[in-house]
Amino acid sequence: xVTENFLLDEVNFDLKEVIESDGLQKLAAxxxxxxxxxxxxxxxxxxxxxxxxxxxxxxxxxxxxxLNIYAQRKNAIDVIYNSIEDNIESADVxxxxxxxxxVVDESIxxxxxxxxxxxxxxxxxxxxNFEILEQYFLKIKNKNAAVQSLKNKxxxxxxxxxxxxPMAIDYYKRYQEIIEExxxxxxxxxxxxxxxxxxxxxxxxxAEEAETKREGLTDEQKAIFDILRQGKTLTEKEKNEIKKIxxxxxxxxxxxxxxxxxxxxKSVTAAAVFNYVNKTLFETLPxxxxxxxxxxxxxxLIYEHxxxxxxxxxxxxxxQY
Length: 321
Known about the structure:
By secondary structure, the protein is mainly alpha-helical. The chain has three domains: 2-85, no CATH class; 95-214, no CATH class; 219-320, no CATH class. 70% of the residues lie in helices and 3% in strands. The protein is built from 14 helices and five strands. The strands form two sheets. It has a three-stranded antiparallel beta sheet. Strand 1 and strand 2 (122-123) form a beta hairpin. Helix 8 packs parallel to helix 10.
């Protein structure tokens, strides 16, 4: 069977370990199989494709009695496949794997601040306790599945951040570089290094988030602030000026122009938004730190951000206003 050969040749796992075991030994074998499939993203994808093909062929041949010969092998593939599809949370995975999964889940989910009535649950990465998570990680034998779980959740949160703040894209690009390196390696040293780099990445973003909170900016104000300050070395005085510009620019736009239903689709309103941003930046950004080219670039970046994230009618990705 192609799937069995893949498991044996490419990720060094013999499906017989699942087929020929029972009880706790079977759970351990399933855990080992899941970990082997999680060697990297490519091996996971390949296994999923091969397993689905097995299921398709098996279904097509029913109720042929010949299937009885292959039932155990199909069931063994099925249980590994379902463990992966269920994010390592099914009853077929050992208690140890469930524990590391729960640590990852709770670390990510419990760092949320209390949402307002109309706000989406906000993620506060600064409260993520990676020290506790790392202690669990270093103790477990099968680290591939733990890294997969962690990276999937970090990716989800980074995508959420990029939606709310386009300047967070640099963190997402760094995440992608880390995962590319991870997928090129298969030994335990690479797995540990990936885990360390993910911790480093989130901590660096958390430090910036903590600084922004000290400055008293909301998520949406920070997005404008980050666009304006990107690529600039600002004095403390200039930094305070840029912060003030960010807050006042957004407040003024939300009072009127961004309240128009589907404003970005209406040429007159869209032009009014663009021109207001450009005029405000031209009149308020400190010279010579910001030249004419800087103002044009920042105007376009802010306008594109507004167009993507403010829907009109008093609604935005950040909630109602």
